[in-house]
Design brief:
- The chain is α+β, with helices and mostly antiparallel strands and about 140 residues long.
- It is built from two helices and seven strands, in the order ββββαβαββ.
- The protein has a single domain, classed as 60s Ribosomal Protein L30, Chain: A (2-Layer Sandwich).
- It has helices spanning about 55-75, 95-105, and strands at about 10-15, 30-35, 35-40, 40-45, 80-90, 115-120, 130-135.
- Strands 1, 2, 3, 4, 5, 6 and 7 form a seven-stranded mixed beta sheet that branches.
- Strand 5, helix 2 and strand 6 form a beta-alpha-beta unit.
- The chain is globular, with a radius of gyration of 16 Å.
Length: about 140
């Protein structure tokens, strides 16, 4: 019948875990939307203390990626399913140091995700790096 089309709405759900830092604003750690999971930008914040980890770009990159891993695991996924990352650096001069840690989490021989890396004028909490991820769940 005309005008009685049925449209199914895509599924959407919030992903949250105490193993990643609490949101510092009105956003979710992650959102499942259909077959995808989108993470919020994660800085090198220790979930227990709520403070940036010490140790510069290397330590902050490692913690940011551990935070992303925790969100993915809370959603029943893993880093292996990441298809795209956005990396925001306070200083592009930190690119090589960030990249070395990033490669530990996404090895070249495993087909790392697509990525964009940019220098940001300023990051929340004066972080040196912030990373977000798009994950294929299906």
């Amino acid at each position: 019948m005309p005008g009685t089309e049925s449209h199914s709405s895509p599924s959407r759900g919030v992903v949250s875990t105490p193993r990643a830092p609490k949101a510092i604003g009105p956003y979710s750690q992650g959102i499942k939307a259909g077959d995808f999971l989108f993470t919020a930008g994660e800085a090198g914040v220790d979930p227990a203390s709520g403070k940036l980890v010490e140790g510069g770009i290397t330590a902050q990159t490692r913690q940011a990626l551990e935070n992303i891993r925790a969100i993915l695991e809370a959603a029943g996924s893993s880093l292996r399913s990441v298809v795209k990352c956005g990396v925001f650096l306070a200083d592009l001069a930190d690119f090589q140091a960030m990249n070395a840690v990033y490669a530990e989490f996404f090895p070249a021989d495993k087909g790392p995700p697509a990525r964009t890396t940019v220098q940001a004028a300023k990051l929340p909490m004066s972080a040196l790096v912030e990373i977000d991820a798009v994950v294929l769940l299906a």
